[in-house]
Structures are given as C-alpha cells and as structure tokens.
Amino acid sequence: TWDYYYQVAVYYYNKNQNLDLKRRDTVLDKNGFEVKLGNWLQIQRSRKLAGSLSPSQIQKLDDIKMPWKTEMSKKEKRKTKVSFFKIIYL
After folding, report:
1. Positions of the chain with pLDDT lower than 50, given as ranges
2. Beta strand pairing call for 34-35 and 27-28
3. Could you tell me where the DSSP H helices lie in 1-73?
4. Which of 25, 35, 53, 81 could be stapled to 57 by a disulfide with Cβ–Cβ 3.0 to 4.6 Å?
C-alpha cells in the first residue's frame, strides 16, 4: 500500500538524508525485507504529473525532500529520443 512504501521512504530518508534512488534500486525496510523503493518513487513522480497524487501525499513526500525531477539515464534518454522520432515519422 501507499502508506507502507511511504514509511519505507521515511526510514530510508532518515538513515541516508536523501531519496536519490534510481528506478531499479532496492532498499531494505526496517525489518530487513527488500523493497523496490526506486520504482515506487518513480511511480509517485508519474502520478504527480498525472494529477493523481493527493495534496496530502505530495506534502508528505515534500516533507522528506522528494526529488520530483531527476536526471534521466543515458538509456532512458535514448529511449525517449527514439520514441519521439517514431512519433514524428509515423
């Protein structure tokens, strides 16, 4: 659920003072279970852009300094560029 992943994000933030995770990054929760937090953070970015995060969810993530914009990896940039050109030439 959203609250579980948020608690994992809070735990990670308190321990590392950042949420600088890539999409594929996993972390351990306070019980030692592996969590795909990087993917969840990326989903939250997408949901914010789509307008499907509530104001309280946005505020909670802001409170732990959620990085809303991140640098795309070279692979993601290539994928975006290829998709862009496919759209233009179709």
Report:
1. none
2. antiparallel
3. 2-16, 37-50, 55-63
4. 53
List pLDDT tens digits, range 44-65. 999 999 999 999 999 999 999 9
Measured CA to CA, the distance from residue 87 to residue 12 in angstroms comes to: 39
Distance linking the first and last C-alpha atoms of the chain? 39
Q: Which amino acid is at 88?
A: I
Largest interatomic CA distance in the chain: 50
The residues near 42 (Cβ < 8 Å, ≥ 6 apart) are 23
pLDDT score of 70: 75
Report how far apart, in Å, the C-alpha atoms of 10 and of each of 18, 30, 50, 66, 69 are: 10, 10, 23, 10, 18
